[in-house]
Records
---
Amino acid sequence: MSDPSPVRFTKTHEWVRPEGAGEAVIGITDHAQAQLGDVIFLELPSAGAHLTAGQRFGAVESVKAASDLYSPVSGEILEVNQAAVSAPEVVNQDAQGAGWLLRVRLEGEIPAGLLDPQAYDAFAESDSH
Amino acid sequence: MSEREVPLGALHRRLGARMVPFAGYQMPLQYSSIRDEHQAVRERAGLFDVSHMGEVRVGGLGALAYLQRLVTNDVGKLEVGQALYTVMCREDGGIVDDLLVYRDPGDYMCVVNAARHDDDLEWMGRQLPPSGVELEDQSDQTCLLALQGPLSLQILAPLAEGTELGSISYYHHRPGRVLGVPVRLSRTGYTGEDGFELYCDRAAAEGLFQGILDHGRSRGLLPAGLGARDTLRLEAGFRLYGQDITLEREPISAGLGWVVKLDKGEFVGREALVRAKAEPQLSFIGLRLLGRGIPRPHQAILAAGQPIGEVTSGSYGFSVGAGIAMGYVRPGSAPKGSEVEVALRADPAERGPAQVVALPFYRRPT
């Protein structure tokens, strides 16, 4: 039986969704965008750059605060969501859909230590209190 | 920590507001998004509940003389039906609060900041003469709604029976009725847009807020929270007490010399302000970021690599399209048009270039 949702989450509020063919898409969680409020700037690396799981790869800045981004996976960046860079409000409107940040070619597997949706929801709930 | 609920708290929650603690109250931060609410006020209209503000009536035969001693602006020039922006200072010039003074036929009403309410009343009480002046704190029974934006007049006019709203000039006010509710209609605000502030009895406030909102929705009116209020007032160059002005700052350095009338006669702090005017200790400046990044309070302002001052208010100016800030620098260290740097993150090496610009950052089209 296949997992109903293959999306995995970090405790630093990023998500990664495998797209098949060794590719995956990365973004910040809906919980994170709600906590940050209006996103104004995205600071992201360029296509071709390398990501290391657990390492800082950029930042998101909202009216409220600037916050670093940490990669859930290791791999090479294939594409940056330019629509989100030029109109970051899409991250607030659809953080786990149209507000994705990076498409990557995975290096190895998605780390086993990441949270599944249920575990992340429970973590986010406790994190916001 | 228990913050007080504003009288309209339940309504704000029904409207989907995210509530945050502010000045001892649970206040709506935003209903939709700060960006949408900010744009609504600039392009159409927004409705704010600012009932946390304090209202203090000043009455008695000695009211004018008392207020003239209490505040720095000239209350003697205030006509019935006018409003006046001013500050009140300690003897050393430190700003106790900034406030609005309304003149009514028989008395005055001072509108003070929620976070300063208790200290203000204590201070105002201490300045009272032995007789002839009465203070009455009406904060608990008074609510304040602010309808702000270019469509404010159009939205409010059909609801204000018997009042020719258009004839109320900027910084003027008049008693009237909106949706049958007795209100003070004041053409004032904290956003840089045209608009009205409505003072009413707390029992009537929820119906008034809901009624104006229902009527204005079709014209694009949105309920707006503290988040948009902050970005709007920053673009308009309005000082915020607790950030831009404090007990440690005097109004001359804060760029509020225009509300200090040294020639009106004696008032509390006058001597200190005469000295401050002769030799200003600080300059209050506006900064527009040239690149990306959002300045925040307490971040350093640098010129030629050396610290020259500190940001007191900073955010993103949605109508300016850039990060903007206000703050204090050493006099002469950052002339208008010059380029400085702002420390943007915790890491002091991360700095953004910024241009020193005149306030306000935004002026409404005339």
Note: Chain B is about 20% helix and 35% strand.
---
Amino acid sequence: MAVKPFKLAVAGLSAVGLAALAACGQAPSENGGDDNADASFKACMVTDSGGVDDKSFNESSWAGMEAAAEENDDIEVQVKESSSETDYDPNLQASVDDGCNFVVGVGGLMTENVNTIATANPDIPFATVDGFSEVANVYSIQFDTAQSAFLAGYVAASQTKTGKVATWGGVNIPPVTIFMDGFAEGIAKHNEDKGTNVELLGWDEEAQDGTFINTFEDAAAGKSTSDTFITQGADILFPVAGPAGIGALTAASENDAVSAIWVDTDGFESTEYGAELITSAEKGLATAVKDSVLAAYDAANGGDAISGSYVGTLANDGVSIAPFHDFDSAVSDETKAELDALTQQIIDGSLVVESPSSPKAQ
Amino acid sequence: MSTDTQAPAADQPDADETPEQKPSFMRLFGRYLTEANSVMVTIYSLLLAFFIGGILLIVSDEYVRSTYTYFFARPQDALSASWYLVRDSYIALFEGAILNLSTLERYSAGTAEFGDLLRPLSETLTYATPLIFTGLAVGLAFRAGLFNIGAQGQMIFGMLGALIVGFALDLPPVLHLPLAVIAGALAGAAFGAVPGVLKATTGAHEVISSIMLNNIAALFLVWAIGTEFLHSETKSDLITKPVDESAVMPKLLSSLGESLRVNWALIIGVAAAVFTWWLLSRSTFGFRIRAVGFNEHASATAGMRIGSTYTTTMAVAGGLAGLAGAALSLGVGSSGVTTNTALEYGFDGITVALLGRANPGGIVAAALLFGALKAGALSAQPDVPVDISTLLQAIIVLFIAAPALVKAILHLRTPRGGLVTLEAKGW
């Protein structure tokens, strides 16, 4: 009896070995070096409920962490995923217990939890992504994405042939609607300056209400919403819904006349639908997180302590619009010049993109 | 439902044993171990699950997988890498769920508090608490022959009910907390009664209607959180207002450390289990539940009202699931409820009830096991994939639900009275 599980173990192991195939390859002369295993500085990240592969801000933040480890061999990075906000406390606590020298909490919902644990551990620097904290050892990383969405809206207004563009969101919350506000203002600016009459479907900036699918995960719901907008005549879609936004890209790929604009990352690289994308309203999360890790490393090695807050804007390259890629020839040089001028005006403050959802910090 | 009878001594005549000689205890014990009775099937299911979990850990680890590419050149690499990976992963789960050995070291060196030592256990109990309630909610309905898939929705309504009383009323703590808990139970009961009423009056199958009601509850939650009444005044994300301090479940061990999250909801959970046991085995209502579950036609002939039994059973089950929601919104989620707070505790309750064989004591034990898996997996990140807890739960239940599979894999003997499996007779 007792040998049965063992037999099964042997059988299982050999099956796995065989399935892996190429099991007769050469043995390496020595163990491959692990990623910065003996680093002196450990930077840790705790995700929000989206998980580390959410194709959105968790993934970008993690890319920033990894980039920091790539740049500095003395930095080791690790990530702990949360499946709901009830996991934040144990994950943050475990990061402290693991001896992390810098802890990044991703998502505005985690800010309070980060504050609590940072107060209890005043010697460890923390960071909160998309949140604002006043605790001394918590560094706030935020983005004024209304600025990049403004430029995206301007491009959309210049590209539409039907005179109608559409946006829809995951859930009606400020991190989403800030994009829609900026997008709406960009279109309004184009209408004003160029005398066009482009109509935006799916968002009413004044009422702060519009079309939401109430999920960030369900791409099928995103597609059906997009199809509705296409039927109504929209030929450019701007989904602000994380992974669910892919639904808009599938809808666009089924209609030759329809294209889309992505958010958060350069969708030409992060999604499979690069050919549908005019541009993306990017937010430089990865760079900001990477810089914060490197700054925390310097602080731990005698540099200035990392504190205060960071707001990503066009001025500091924290937000931007992605290259036009396949649409480079479609966007006229005139429009490109206007975009450069608008960027300059936003940077020097002569043009203000206002959204009730803009970061309040600083 | 399930009976754990020991195989009688003289079950089968044995060749090397004279009939008049009584078999020794060891022999009986050995016989028991090799028999597919419900206790051993449960134990073997757990062992098999951990075994298969180990294989999956090996397959999913990039480094260990790479050692298999030159298996025939240097097999010891692959074998030792696999062994250390599986061993370290399960140690990490244990450390996250029960006792962290490095904390123990620091404690004996005087650099850690006693409370730090208890944190893994506190996390296990914290994650087990909602599962106790949802497990009972499913288990109780099982006994009446009803398959309550709707615990998730009932829990969501319980969560909202407790939350609303928790922040909208202004009461002293002695009144506020109990009232909020009761509100949670009532909201869950009201929502839970719906499939019962539908079944009693129209014959609509409770599986179908409770699945649909889960979706309704989940979407209702998204909408409700966004309303001005519930939405947080200070946070922009999709999160509700926090409950008042007077309605928050007090932590059980806060004197030993603020990070020990286990709270009074656990005590309520154990009390609910005792109540469910009493209800099922000592009360007239419980007798009716079991009778209807056993044979509804005979019960009807005996003069029992089947429809009202369905309705009340579902309402009580919904009330139990509602308490899970109250435990969340007044406990770990007291700073505000989001669409993720309820996780999938309601669905996990189905597996807890299956593993606990719809028996209150078994359900508490199963909830503790699953809570330990969840707490352990969370803490063992990133060395162990966090999904390992879900994976192990799924494999355990797969085996529990298919005792014949366990019997075949391990060549167990069939117990007298056949294989025991758990099924709802509502079909």
Note: The two ends of chain A are 70 Å apart (CA to CA).
